[in-house]
Structures are given as structure tokens and as C-alpha cells.
Amino acid sequence: MSKPVALLQGTLDLLVLRILALEPMHGWAIAQRIRQMSSDVLQVGQGALYPSLHKLEQNGWISSEWAVSENNRRAKYYKLTRAGRKALENEVEQWERLSGAVTGIVHAR
Questions:
Q1: Alpha-helix residue ranges (DSSP H) falling in the chain
Q2: Which end of the chain is more exposed for a tag (fewer CB within 10 A), N or C?
Q3: Is 57 exposed, middle or buried (CB count within 10 Å of its CB: 0-12, 13-18, 19+)?
């Protein structure tokens, strides 16, 4: 049963990288943007989001800095690095290959 968890985590990493390719933002905004862009289908909790952000930062794919948010609170803003842009390209290629394979199986007759 560990494979689906790994797949979900990998998918979350891809989504976070894609969101941060749009613009730097803080964690809560990332979760909201994922929810918004998925038409409320995907909802990411803090328990999944922050470990993903930490891992992406350790990999050097994102960087962070503290700043004041739109509601005048101190927040950690994340942005994609050059290595993160390259990783995003690779992750998108892998996702397209995987999703195509799954679609082929699901629609097999």
C-alpha cells in the first residue's frame, strides 16, 4: 500500500513546483491556488504541504524567505529556483507518461 502514498507525494511535489512557476507565494496561498485551479477537487492539508515544501527546498528546487503577506502577517514565501525549473520539466514529462499509461489501462476494452 506504500506505492499510492509515494505517488500522491510525488504528485503533490509536481503541483507545488507548477504553482510556484507562476509566482512566489506562501504555503497557505499555494494550497488555495491548488484548490482553486483544480475546481475544488484537490485540497492539500498542511500535514502534506509543508513536508513537500521542506523536501523541495532541501533538493534545491525552491528557495524561501520571510516577508509580510497580503494581510500584514509574517509568512515564508517560496519561489522556484533554476534547478526547480529543470526539475519541473522532468516531473511534467514523467507525469504525462504515467497518466497516459494509466488512462490506457482504464480505457482498455
A1: 2-22, 27-37, 46-58, 82-106
A2: C
A3: middle
Q: Which CATH number fits domain 2-106: 3.30.1360.70, 3.40.50.620, 3.60.21.10, 1.10.10.10?
A: 1.10.10.10
Q: What is the pTM of this model?
A: 0.88
Between the alpha carbon of residue 106 and those of residues 11, 14, 32, 64, the distances in Å are 19, 22, 30, 40
Angle at 88 between CA 9 and CA 65, to 5 degrees: 80
d(CA 26, CA 45) in angstroms, rounded, equals 14
What is the dihedral sign for C-alpha 95, 79, 58, 87? positive
What are the pLDDT digits (tens) for 48-89? 999 999 999 999 999 999 999 888 999 999 999 999 999 999
* Pairing verdict, β 25-26 and 62-68: unpaired
Do 74 and 82 contact (CB within 8 A), yes or no?
Answer: no
